[in-house]
Design brief:
Distance between the termini of chain A: 30 Å
Strand content of chain B: 5-15%
Number of helices of chain A: 14
Number of domains of chain B: 5
CATH topology of the largest domain in chain A: Alkaline Phosphatase, subunit A
Structural class of chain A: alpha/beta
Distance between the termini of chain B: 35 Å
Oligomer: heterodimer
Strand content of chain A: 15-25%
Number of strands of chain B: 25
């Protein structure tokens, strides 16, 4: 596919968000087309490639990179190794960041938090994640995810776009481009950003993470904000009543219709439609954000923070409301996991804010019968080092970036429940069994949506680009 | 589905020029694209991944004799292996293999068959041969062409059996050409003058006026900013600000003086390598410093150094060559004759810049050019020279014997000594917690731990933020007691309590020393106030004094608090580093004792805020210290403790040196040292006032290697700078550097440079290039719709001495450009993308122009050229939601006021990780990478911007004011006036009616709701004219908003 082919495609869809204007509009050629093709609200005509398991994705990205050793990868031997030097046989000369490469010593820091086994499969989960522990039979934990990047900017860009360097479309944009939306009054790809719950300073984020890259810009994620307009410029200006707005749009349509008749440019008809859509969004988005009709039990399930606009908990709840309405891709970012220092303190604060709402989201989707058709993904951009960054004491330590293994979990449409996949070594430093590369995660996510990651391509600068570059294997062991 | 494919093919056929059954097949137009897209990936230039040794991108390969028969037998498809395989019935035999995602359509297979049947004529790729100026084609309609362009366009139309459209009406034409050449709409006066000018050259006069306007230079720069990935921030990670606007202003100046494209090319790619380059020629090289720059903590310099060079290669090859060289970074190019080695040879041209891998924390990254005025430059040179002189006078070699001698004498004369009188608590923190005052209140650590590091007085205690140290019953004073507290601190945070003696159970009775929240200060540092509180009851009965100046976090500071026992704020004096410090009294209400039995402590979170940082030499006196004693404790005593030990750290050595030069050296040396410090300070201040811009230079030559898989860690073969081997070679006498490369690019024999440039101009006016893929002239790009026209324009560009302005003039004065953009349904059906040009293209304005147009129509636009970027209205929180703290620049959006709100959009501050949201909604790129072609979308979010963004609401209100002030008295004439301002034409009465009805309705509404009227007309910072009734102005604002939202208003017709 390419910008050049967009025009052909645009004939086959009427989706308001993905309609591009490279030339021809829907009306002029409508009569030439098989009317059945109009049934599809956006997306490519040859997609899905096969029957999808999931219709929607909720990606709970934990920005800054949570430590796998404190949360999901139980390494009992570390208690004995605490304070000993990381052996060369484990480090194997692999590169480390500029933040710890100058350290004289790399002492092992054992996690201060306890693990127990939960669920039928006896999955190990730390005491920091008591609510997640209760849903382990609904999720698959992958302990052997690995990535190519070692610092935040390239790593988060990599997991979101398949490339460490900027310029590629994000996962959500690919999905919006390929599948369109089930709800024409909301964007196909919605983004939420929640701030840190820890005391360390947050890692920054970048709008490129939800950018459409070289795909048409209508596929970029729409950031739903917690302060001001939820969608930029959504509210009418002060002093303008809805009836006034309605009458303005009516006059505008009349005038645009006159022009359309005269010039025959199909873009004018599209624009008329877009103004109507904008008008409807002014109702549909506030409806979505209005939680006053949610029962008390909802807030209990997601925790007290879910009443607080902008909180991760409220974003989880909104994510459920979005997929209920057919939104294709919901991307959350929870900032604040970059614990180079004071890790025990900050990881507890972060976990407290994240654990209950994440688990509640899975339970909530399940009780509504939505989990089967929604894929939920939880994880950061890399893991953290077993060795201590900075001073190691009995109660305090920090951990640097670690790309060679980290833990994520996935749940819902297309994913087996209750699997713990992969083994790392006793130092939680290298993968011993079942490595899962970031490109494998991306290939698997697309697969759950009925997309062959090798066949969803876009021609740009002469090349047929895809999300997984020339890589990516399905994680068969967790596919339902 | 079948139906869709047919349609798809017909689209391609139109664009590429048509290969109907009757016409001969054209290899470059019809066949190469098929082979390239479906075969080259496995049978193309990439040697490593080539399958079965077959290549179809060269003539030799395609006609090779192979086992099983020749690949292609001219005239005999059935005998050609190529055709046999693509048409094979059996899946296993068929090419391309299933699952490759590149299946051939039946029509494509048929094209291949016919091409072979017609003799399989092979041609080299069109873009890699030097353009030859074609003859003008003869046309039937001899009266239509106005210049050569039209002969080519008309000849093609006549072949297709189409006629050109009639010329657009004068108002439409003027609006079109004014928007195209200046990015702004014409004024009604300009429209009237043009309509009234019946002379034959009326249009050409207008074009010449527009081309000479400074607004035209800005409009040309607008397109180049996308290509140059210009932005005001670094792009990676923290994405703080940089100053490249001096480069942007150079660009505008270059267009304003119509710098020829060859010169324009040389200056941007290699201005620094010209003999005695001017300042402007150096600034111009900023083109290749506009790439993103990183300083993420922990990033690896070499990794990013490689990325910067790769970006220069990608941008340069895209902009000047229309080639996607970047594809050959990891392996040989899959489609075009560019090997991986070619890529790294090209890379070598840009590899010697003296930049660092990680830089930019404080703004511009090295190398950069300071843009001082002559006076500033003189002063700076003079300061630098003076500083050098002073430094050489005071250099270590000369000073060492003097310092040694002084040390010897001082050590003999003085042992470290400090005031003992009244000392009731003393924690030296020299690796121990003992109280050495004689009261034995040794510190205990109930929580966390204390560690040790070097301090001003021997060693110091380090508190982690989790550490709590208790000093027991020390400092047990009553309100009438005079006392003094002295200590060294160096904190690594803000919002801390340094020292506390406080009883939370009794209204916080006691006292404490604390720091408040920091504010960012220059050089990425933080500063906060120091406060001292004496509390009887909190709140309500206390003394609070606070330093007027903030103290910088991270420095060692000696703090003394003297209290005279008066119970008044006036009785508290603060000293920092031996000097009395001005304070503000925040509270002076102490009405009772502050005495408490609570222990003196540091970092007890139950009582106060934590403390993170170092503390040294903490002293409590039951009397006030004298000024001399304070001076001694802060300045002299610490040095004596250093002198007492023979072993010195680097830091201690420099402290001794500084002390000597400040206090102990002979007066002439001390004076010189004072002068040196003054000069350094002045230089720093001066440098802050001088803007800078990043430039290219040739530093130490770096070796260049082919990088396996493009990874900076996999160096393989060493290479030197050269151009891709498939293109004409660099002449022998040309230097192998950027200047040689630039000269090679502008050599008339270069097949790409002029074609790529004129094609981009074409895109600017017609919405689509003659080669649609303006960034890719390779085999994966689309062949030109009018190949002869492209070559004629390319040769004309060179013939005129690369005259950019003449080229714009040529295009906009053509009959092709002057056509009406109205299209019949038949024409839309036959040529939806308008590749045949039987009409003028009609499309939405670029993002910047959408906004500039509204500002101009409403009279808000401020026409001022250049200068630092500006911060117009932006919804709150767009930057902050993703920012990194608030110490770095460009993390918090600080909106401008006044005229900066109404500058052209090209001057809006461009933050890469959060681009200006309204512009981004209209497809402006984030400028992370070179962009040659923007998407043109049509979305509901765009409607929301035009309806609700304060810029557009304010523009509506201002337009309404003009309609009321200058549009006559009655509603209809006001509507006509506003309509003409926006569209350059008079509305028809059927267009006036809906707006008149709207006005009447809303006027009635707002008269009954004046609050709302005031609110609506109060949007924006420009004042609403008091001349008008708010209700009426509000009603006209709604009408004006509809006018600004018309499809016609945001469209070039």
């Amino acid at each position: 596919m390419s910008i050049d082919n967009e025009i052909r495609l645009s004939m086959t869809r009427r989706h308001f968000f993905s309609r591009t204007a490279t030339g021809i509009g829907t009306v002029a050629l409508a009569s030439l087309l098989n009317p059945k093709l109009f049934a599809k609200p956006g997306g490519l005509p040859d997609l899905p490639h096969f029957t999808p398991k999931a219709k929607s994705i909720i990606f709970l990205h934990q920005s800054g990179a949570p430590s796998q050793m404190e949360l999901f990868d139980h390494k009992p031997l570390l208690q004995k190794l605490h304070g000993t030097e990381l052996p060369d046989s484990i480090r194997r000369g692999q590169r480390i960041t500029g933040m710890t490469s100058g350290q004289d010593s790399f002492p092992v820091a054992a996690p201060v938090y306890r693990f127990e086994q939960y669920g039928q499969a006896g999955a190990w989960v730390s005491e920091l994640m008591p609510h997640t522990a209760k849903i382990v039979d609904d999720i698959s934990i992958i302990k052997t995810v690995n990535t190519d990047a070692i610092n935040h900017d390239p790593a988060i860009t990599f997991i979101q776009t398949g490339s460490q360097q900027p310029g590629r479309p994000s996962l959500g944009s690919w999905v919006s481009y390929g599948l369109g939306s089930e709800n024409e009054e909301l964007p196909a790809f919605v983004v939420f950003v929640s701030q840190t719950s820890g005391l360390n300073i947050d890692q920054p984020l970048f709008s490129r993470l939800w950018s459409s890259g070289f795909l048409p810009s209508s596929h970029q994620g729409v950031n739903f904000r917690s302060a001001g307009d939820p969608v930029l410029y959504l509210s009418d200006p002060p002093g303008m009543r809805r009836e006034t707005r309605r009458r303005m749009l009516d006059a505008l349509e009349k005038l645009n219709q006159i022009r359309s008749a005269e010039y025959g440019d199909p873009e004018i008809q599209t624009r008329i439609g877009q103004y109507e859509m904008a008008f409807r969004m002014q109702t549909s988005v506030p409806d979505l954000m209005d939680l006053s009709n949610e029962p008390e039990s909802t807030f209990e399930m997601y925790g007290p923070e879910s009443r607080k606009p902008g909180s991760y908990a409220q974003h989880c709840l909104l994510a459920r409301r979005l997929v209920e309405r057919g939104v294709r891709f919901v991307q959350l970012y929870k900032r604040g996991w970059d614990q180079h220092n004071d890790l025990p303190r900050d990881i507890a604060l972060q976990s407290k804010a994240v654990d209950q709402p994440s688990a509640a989201l899975v339970r909530d989707l399940k009780q509504r019968g939505l989990l089967d058709q929604t894929l939920v993904i939880w994880g950061g951009e890399f893991g953290r080092t077993v060795y201590c960054q900075g001073k190691l004491t009995t109660t305090n330590y920090g951990r640097d970036h670690h790309p060679r293994c980290f833990a994520m979990w996935m749940a819902g449409g297309g994913i087996k429940a209750g699997v713990s996949l992969g083994e790392t070594d006793d130092y939680c430093y290298n993968v011993v069994e079942d490595p899962v590369h970031v490109h494998d995660i991306q290939a698997t996510v697309l697969h759950c949506l009925g997309i062959d990651h090798k066949r969803l391509t876009y021609k740009f600068q002469g090349r047929h680009f895809r999300l997984t570059d020339v890589h990516g294997e399905l994680i068969k062991k967790i596919l339902a | 589905m079948q139906f869709r494919l047919v349609l798809l093919l017909s689209g391609v056929a139109i664009a590429a020029g048509g290969a109907s059954p009757q016409k001969p097949i054209d290899f470059n137009r019809d066949i190469r694209p098929i082979l390239s897209d479906t075969c080259f990936a496995c049978h193309g230039p990439d040697e490593k991944h080539r399958m079965v040794g077959l290549r179809l991108d060269t003539k030799d390969g395609a006609f090779a004799e192979r086992k099983g028969g020749p690949v292609i037998v001219p005239g005999d498809p059935a005998a050609s292996r190529l055709y046999q395989r693509v048409s094979a019935e059996k899946k296993a035999m068929r090419m391309p293999p299933a699952g490759a995602g590149q299946d051939l359509t039946a029509a494509q297979i048929d094209l291949l068959r016919r091409w072979i049947a017609q003799g399989a004529k092979w041609e080299t790729h069109w873009a890699y041969t030097t353009p030859v100026r074609p003859e003008l084609p003869t046309v039937g309609e001899k009266g239509w062409p106005r210049n050569a362009i039209d002969n080519f366009v008309l000849a093609r139309l006549e072949r297709e059996g189409l006629e050109p459209s009639h010329e657009a009406d004068k108002a439409t034409l003027l609006r079109r050409v004014t928007l195209d050449l200046t990015g702004l709409p014409p004024t009604p006066a300009e429209v009237n003058a043009f309509v009234a000018d019946k002379s034959s050259a009326a249009y050409e006069k207008v074009v010449d006026r527009l081309l000479a306007s400074p607004r035209h230079a800005e409009r040309m720069a607008m397109q180049w900013l996308d290509l140059a990935r210009y932005a005001d921030t670094h792009g990676y990670h923290i994405d703080s600000h940089r100053d490249m606007w001096p480069w942007r202003d150079w660009l505008i100046r270059a267009f304003a003086r119509n710098m020829p494209y060859d010169e324009f090319t040389i200056e941007q790619l290699a201005g620094d390598l010209l003999p005695s380059p001017t300042r402007d020629q150096l600034i111009a090289t900023g083109f290749n410093r506009n790439h993103m720059i990183n300083f993420e903590g922990g990033a690896i310099p070499e990794e990013y150094h490689v990325e910067y060079v790769v970006d220069r290669v990608e941008a340069t090859s895209n902009v000047w060559m229309g080639m996607t060289l970047g594809c050959a970074r990891c392996h040989d190019h899959k489609y075009d004759p560019v090997s991986q080695k070619d890529f790294y040879r090209f890379f070598a041209f840009f590899n010697n810049v003296s930049d660092k891998g990680l830089d930019g924390r404080y703004g511009n990254a090295e190398p950069f050019l300071q843009l001082s005025t002559p006076e500033q430059k003189n002063r700076l040179d003079n300061l630098t020279w003076q500083i050098e002189c002073k430094e050489s006078d005071l250099d270590d070699e000369q000073l060492a014997p003097q310092i040694a001698e002084w040390e010897k004498q001082r050590r003999a004369a003085i042992a470290p000594d400090s005031p003992k009188d009244g000392l009731v608590g003393h924690w030296e923190f020299d690796g121990h917690l003992a109280d050495t005052s004689g009261n034995y209140r040794h510190a205990t650590v109930p929580r966390g731990e204390v560690t040790w590091a070097e301090g001003p007085v021997v060693r110091s205690a380090v508190f982690s933020g989790e550490t709590h140290a208790s000093l027991g019953g020390a400092a047990d004073f009553n309100s009438g007691d005079a006392f003094s507290l002295a200590l060294w601190i160096r904190r690594s945070g803000s919002n801390f309590t340094v020292l506390h003696k406080s009883d939370p159970g009794r209204d916080h009775r006691g006292f404490d020393i604390s720091f408040d929240e920091f504010i960012p200060v220059p050089d990425l540092r933080r500063a906060s106030h120091l406060s001292f509180r004496l509390i009887h009851k909190w709140p309500g009965s206390a003394i609070v004094v606070r330093t007027r100046e903030r103290l910088i976090q991270g420095d060692w500071d000696h703090i003394v608090i003297n209290y005279d026992g008066s119970g008044k704020a006036a009785g508290v004096k603060l000293f920092v580093n031996g000097k009395p410090y001005e304070t503000d009294v925040l509270e002076d209400t102490l009405a009772g004792s502050f005495r408490t039995s609570a222990p003196l402590g540091i970092g007890d979170k139950h009582v106060a805020r934590p403390y993170k940082g170092q503390i040294d030499d903490l002293r409590v006196y039951n009397r006030q210290l004298t000024v001399e004693e304070i001076d001694h404790l802060a300045i002299h005593y610490p040095i004596d403790t250093v002198l007492a030990s023979a072993k010195r750290s680097k830091d201690q050595k420099s402290r001794v040196r500084e002390y000597f030069l400040t206090y102990a050296a002979p007066e002439n040396l001390r004076a010189e040292y004072r002068e040196l410090n003054r000069l350094l300070k002045e230089k720093k201040e001066l440098e802050k006032q001088i803007p800078s811009t990043m430039v290219m230079d040739e530093g130490e030559p770096r070796e260049t290697f082919v990088l396996g898989r493009g990874d900076y860690r996999n160096r393989t073969e060493k290479v030197t700078a050269d151009v891709p081997s498939a293109l004409p070679p660099l002449p022998k006498d040309t230097p192998r550097n950027r200047l040689g490369l630039a000269r090679w690019l502008i050599d008339p024999a270069n097949p790409l440079t002029s074609r790529v440039a004129v094609n981009r101009y074409w895109q600017m006016y017609f919405g689509t290039g003659l080669v649609k893929t303006v960034e890719d002239f390779g085999s994966q790009g689309e062949p030109p719709s009018h190949p002869e026209l492209l070559d004629w324009l390319a040769t004309e560009f060179i013939r005129t001495g690369w005259d950019i302005r003449a080229m714009q003039r040529l295009i906009v004065t053509s009959a092709t450009y002057r056509q009406s953009s109205k299209a019949s349904p038949e024409l839309v059906e036959k040529d939806p993308e308008n590749r045949l040009l039987a009409r003028m293209s009609r499309f939405r304005l670029p993002a910047e122009t959408v906004r500039d147009n509204a500002l101009a129509i409403s009279g808000l636009l401020v026409e001022k050229t250049g200068g630092p970027s500006v911060y117009p209205y932006q919804p709150e929180g767009v930057w902050e939601a993703i920012a990194y703290g608030d110490v770095y620049s460009a993390q918090k959006y600080k909106q401008d006021h006044g005229e900066a709100l109404y500058r052209r959009s090209m001057y809006t501050f461009w933050k890469r990780t959060a681009p200006p949201p309204a512009l981004a909604t209209f497809d402006a790129p984030d400028r992370e990478k070179c962009t040659a072609r923007r998407a043109r979308t049509n979305t509901p979010l765009q409607a929301l911007v035009l309806l609700n963004d304060p810029t557009f609401v304010e523009s509506s209100r201002k337009l309404a004011e003009h309609m009321m002030a200058d549009g006559g008295k009655d509603a209809q004439s006001r509507i006509r006036y506003g309509w003409k301002l926006a569209t350059a034409r008079n509305p028809e009465s059927r267009e006036v009616r809906p707006l008149k009805a709207l006005f009447e309705q809303e006027y009635a509404n707002y008269r009954n709701d004046r609050d709302s009227a005031l609110k609506l007309t109060g949007v924006g910072e420009s004042e609403a004219s008091a001349k008008f009734d708010a209700a009426e102005l509000a009603a006209w604002t709604t009408v004006a908003s509809v006018i600004l939202n018309l499809d016609e208003t945001i469209t070039k017709e």
